């Protein structure tokens, strides 16, 4: 270890925030399109709406961070003077489109807050669905490109894995779901109407069950990522040893990413999801659990980016 | 990617740039993909016989003649006013073994001007490219945005962010000297004659003969970058070799701000 990081905290934060925003946008749009979201007041409409409103914020904050991390922030528009096959170039275009469409998608939800604008809101349903159709592929694109960008270099053997992009995608979706759960829990107002309460828990179940599935996938992808790097003789095995037991970043990885970020939240969610899944019991997780679990997942998502980005830079090819 | 002068950073308005970019997007995508494919095809057919480049400048570093005096480092520093803390060219010391079985060798370093430069393929603004006319990998400081992607992608750590200009910087084989028929400044100053510069595309050049007649190695050849800087009698010992019982102790002194090779 040692040496200065070429890509430091701003880039790590960007990778995390862009992942969260892209994940939130993708989840919100998918729920609107295929979650029975339907029109005003539909089952998951509120869930799609809170996601739509949140999604552009982390992406814009993260993008601001990396623009000012550039050596020449004023030249950021040089990225859009060309189109080439650099993952960063393609990612910049995806990011540009996603920021625009996610902001418009969020704006299309605003009239639904005002009952007197119900007519307008109903008319905007088609617009929302249109942007939702764009946001799903764009959100996935933004989440995937961050991993492709890191993976495109043989000089950084830890990153040079085809499964890193998949790992970042699943982590983006999982942290996106967690961000929506957190926001819903924070802004929740108990309703006297049992139907509204029922709807809240219905959406909460959809989110939590999805998160359990995503966390399961993420654990599997992490296992494959580490296993194949370790089974490869040479640069990748040498590089991955930094996060394996005995490595300099092993504690950080296994405690913060795997235990706090995946295993504990996944098990907690599973404990609430299973009774409903197996015995069709009523699903109602306490707000405190929702908050703790989602914060754990978000911390894990950040620490995943942190460990991968730092470990990839302090390790290099073996020999000279 | 051609001989025409590259556009420097024109400060077009945001709207103009965006509209122009969007309008040319489809066309540019197909062109760049097509060009990429074409380059690949050329690369595949570049087996002996078919010519791909007329001139490919390269260097041989005969480590047997290097005395580790850093004259090349200093000459390069003064030639380009390279700011403190960063280097276009530098000399590493490698000490290995345990007394009385010890050895020390020198490893002069610079950009390898690779035939498959990873820095070029990752550049998002086309600010760095390999010149057709002489194979030198150059950076357009007017287009570079300082994203540091090329610095990550270089397996040789040959690139750095210039702390004064805030754009990517690296060795350019002293284009301003070479184009006038002179040798690069580090070659010119080398007291032991350890650096030999010339055209690898010409089989009769001194450097080509030297490579043909000697055992040469390149750095990190497994990266597939096809470097154009060759070494004679280089010691490729790295700190990881300290794990070998016959070596036991290795100290690499990079003489750089980043104390370790990466």
Characterization of the model:
The complex is a heterodimer of chains A (320) and B (262). Chain A is built from 11 helices and no strands. By secondary structure, chain A is mostly helical. Chain A has one domain: Up-down Bundle (Formate dehydrogenase/DMSO reductase fold). In chain A, helix 1 (9-34) runs antiparallel to helix 3. Chain B has 262 residues and is an alpha+beta fold. Chain B folds into 2 domains: 10-46; 57-114 and 159-253, Alpha-Beta Plaits. Helices cover 26% and strands 19% of the residues of chain B. Chain B is built from 7 helices and 11 strands. Chain B has helices at residues 14-44, 71-80, 118-122, 149-153, 175-178, 185-189, 206-213; strands spanning 57-62, 90-98, 101-109, 128-130, 137-139, 160-161, 168-169, 195-199, 216-217, 229-232, 250-253. Mean pLDDT of chain B is 86; it is low at 7-22 and 28-47. The chains are: A mainly alpha (320), B alpha+beta (262).
How are the secondary structure elements laid out?
The complex is a heterodimer of chains A (320) and B (262).
Chain A: H1 9-34, H2 45-54, H3 56-69, H4 87-107, H5 118-123, H6 125-151, H7 163-186, H8 194-231, H9 235-240, H10 250-279, H11 287-314
Helix pairs in contact in A: 1-2, 1-3, 1-6, 1-7, 1-11, 2-4, 2-7, 4-6, 6-7, 7-8, 7-11, 8-10, 10-11
Chain B: H1 14-44, E1 57-62, H2 71-80, E2 90-98, E3 101-109, H3 118-122, E4 128-130, E5 137-139, H4 149-153, E6 160-161, E7 168-169, H5 175-178, H6 185-189, E8 195-199, H7 206-213, E9 216-217, E10 229-232, E11 250-253
Parallel strand pairs in B: 1-10
Antiparallel strand pairs in B: 1-8, 2-3, 2-11, 4-5, 6-7, 9-10
TL;DR of this structure?
The complex is a heterodimer of chains A (320) and B (262). Chain A has 320 residues and is mostly helical. Helix content of chain A is 72%, strand content 0%.
